[in-house]
Design brief:
- The structure holds two protein chains of two kinds.
- By secondary structure, chain A is α+β, with helices and mostly antiparallel strands.
- Chain A folds into two domains: about 290 residues, no CATH class; about 120 residues, 2-Layer Sandwich (Alpha-Beta Plaits).
- Helix content of chain A is about 30%, strand content about 25%.
- Chain A contains 13 helices and 18 strands.
- In chain A, the strands form three sheets. Chain A has a ten-stranded mixed beta sheet, sandwiched between helices.
- In chain A, helix 1 links the parallel strand 1 and strand 2.
- In chain A, helix 6 crosses helix 7 and helix 7 packs across helix 8.
- The longest helix of chain A has 16 residues.
- The two termini of chain A are about 45 Å apart.
- In chain A, about 50% of the residues are buried.
- Chain B has a single domain, classed as Gyrase A, domain 2 (2-Layer Sandwich).
- Helices cover about 20% and strands about 35% of the residues of chain B.
- Chain B has four helices and six strands; from the N terminus they run βββααββαβα.
- Chain B is elongated and about 45 Å long.
- The chains are: A alpha+beta, B alpha+beta.
- Chains A and B meet through helix 9, strand 14, strand 16 and strand 17 of A and strand 2, strand 3 and strand 5 of B.
Chain lengths: ~450, ~110
């Protein structure tokens, strides 16, 4: 049967760098046309990359690029496995340059690398477009970056033009799989069902181990063998867009009807209209069937015409976020932790809205007002960690919060230990929708000497 | 008998901005109709009332024995604004799985 296999090498920035190797070895062993995708851009990751590039013009692409791609680069090039990644982040040409360097150091012929652009709207022209489309306009004084989600078509064009590696910035995550599948099958741009099927294949792959037992295993209820060595997924995509999800040979983890259903609905809102730049996918009539061990088929995905607008994200500087923790254990620990909380509220509560958690009693299920903590009556728990968090425009104010937390060592209740404090710049973000013809994407082959 | 959703379904949270979805997937297709009856948008909204959701919507996927709940404005502004350790709300699926559900005897012995 005519299938095209896409393996996943990363599901987020910072994913395990030993994951791609077994995926690539599996692709080689099974033979047939294939691609390896790297998805490394969460919503926030790209803004962080823009800040990094401001500080150093040569940075701003995925920091783990060399560790993740380096070990599989030679095998992918030798076996015709196309590498597609959004690891370009805020500096796709920088990533392409790094890949050229990696190939040179490995003694390989220079790979044909295509760079997809058109996502970054941070320059004056891009900001002008965004400011027309966003409610309230842009705040230039706090602006960090604006990027629009591009789709699969430029990726497919680049591969058809001979690219061995395609570097992108912001594209919709599933487009990283749809692009190479589209290049292989040559689907019509309005073959909605096929585009939707391959899009959902990409959706199942885009978070790496989340479809192979990660974010899933619940001992005794949903057991997963070998979670410490969880294999990354592959999708065998058929010419009608349906797919079989499987995982790297010889790895731990699990591909089951249950893992696939959980990931199928992950970050989905209306299952009749999962929107990407390429298609509106409808999974309400989809079927998920186990074909054998670690082999699950997704079929019946339908497609509808792609949206007329593209989603853009705008990030602004948002002051500072600070958090600190201290622990109490043994006899009367809970009362001591609750007293420490009271001390912090009295000393810092007037400066900013604070969030308090008592880790071991109630921490993450409550919201920032944390009424949930108030519903838990005081008890005699023997191991409790107080956490305080706050945010403020002024770095000096959050610094004071962290000094006060640290001062609980000497000026707080008895036996407080394990103080940790941390602060970071906050980013605020908002979404807007831009008519797609205003923000076209394109690809170019990377050539040494191309300015960043 | 009254039990919790945890015994009949598994769940996963995803986030986008200040909104989450929680999938609820029946372990056994025979329980699906009873879960649809028990786990209504109204009950889910009440269960999450402490986070003051602006809206709770439910989508049904009977072919795969699943429901998808979308809860708006429950993340204190989202990943970039929340002071929560779990700013994504990833752990909230397990809050939903604590929901009490009542399945009739014939429903549980099918």
């Amino acid at each position: 049967m005519n299938t095209f296999t896409v393996g996943c090498g990363a599901g987020f920035s910072g994913d395990r760098v030993d994951a791609p190797g077994p995926v690539v070895r599996t692709l080689i062993r099974r033979g047939g046309p294939s691609a390896l995708m790297f998805e490394t851009l969460a919503e926030r990751t790209l803004a962080t990359a823009h800040l990094a590039r401001r500080a150093d013009p040569d940075s701003g692409y995925e920091p783990l690029l060399e560790l993740a791609v380096g070990p599989v680069l030679a095998d992918c090039l030798a076996h015709g496995i196309t590498i597609v990644g959004n690891f370009g982040a805020a500096n796709p040409h920088g990533a392409a340059r790094a890949l050229v360097g990696m190939a040179r150091r490995a003694g390989l012929a220079a790979p044909r690398i295509a760079v997809v652009t058109g996502d970054d709207l941070s320059d004056a022209q891009g900001r002008a477009i965004v400011s027309e489309c966003i409610a309230g306009g842009l705040d230039e004084s706090r602006f960090v970056c604006a990027t629009v989600y591009q789709g699969a078509f430029e990726i497919a064009q680049a591969i058809r033009a001979g690219a061995q590696i395609v570097v992108t910035g912001r594209v919709a995550d599933p487009s990283l799989a749809l692009g190479p599948a589209l290049a292989h099958f040559g689907w019509d741009r309005e073959d909605w069902d096929a585009l939707a099927g391959a899009t959902m294949a990409g959706h199942l792959l885009e978070c790496g181990a989340q479809v192979t037992g990660g974010y899933f295993c619940d001992p005794g209820m949903k057991d997963v063998p070998g979670l410490d060595d969880v294999g990354f997924p592959l999708a065998e995509i058929a010419s009608d867009g349906s797919c079989v999800i499987t995982k790297a040979d010889g790895s731990g983890g699990l591909v089951s009807v249950r893992t696939v259903k959980e990931q199928l609905l992950y970050e989905v809102h209306d299952p009749a209209a999962y929107l990407t730049p390429d298609v509106a996918a409808d999974i309400t009539q989809a079927d998920v069937h186990e074909l054998g061990p670690d082999r699950v088929r997704l079929s019946g995905v339908r497609g509808h015409p792609r949206p007329l607008t593209l989603k853009a994200m705008v990030f602004d500087e948002g002051g500072w976020l600070a958090e600190g923790e201290i622990s109490y254990a043994g006899r009367n620990a809970e009362a001591r932790a609750r007293l420490a909380m009271d001390v912090m509220r009295k000393r810092c509560g007037a400066d900013m809205a604070l969030r308090f958690d008592l880790i071991g009693i109630s921490s993450i299920h409550g919201d920032d007002a944390n009424g949930m903590l108030g519903t838990v009556s005081a008890g005699e728990r023997r191991d409790v960690r107080l956490r305080v968090a706050g945010r403020h425009e002024d770095e000096a104010v959050v610094d004071r919060l962290l000094r006060e937390l640290t001062a609980l060592w000497t000026g707080g209740p008895a036996g407080g230990g394990g103080v940790r404090v941390h602060k970071r710049r906050r980013l605020s973000n908002s979404a807007c929708y831009i008519p797609r013809e205003r923000v076209p994407a394109r690809f170019d082959f990377f050539q040494e000497g191309t300015p960043a | 008998m009254t039990s919790t959703l945890y015994n009949y379904a598994h769940a996963r949270t995803g986030d986008k901005g200040d909104l989450i979805n929680i999938s609820v997937i029946a372990y056994d297709a025979a329980h699906y109709e009873a879960l649809v009856r028990e786990v209504t948008p109204k009950r889910v909204a009440e269960h999450f009332a402490y986070r003051r959701p602006a809206a709770v919507r439910r989508y049904l996927l009977p072919r795969i024995g699943a429901m998808n709940f979308v809860l708006e404005r429950v993340l204190d502004g989202g990943v970039n604004s929340s002071l929560n350790l779990d700013m994504h709300g990833k752990a909230l699926s397990f809050h939903l799985l604590d929901l009490p559900v009542t399945l009739h005897k014939k429903e549980t012995t099918q």
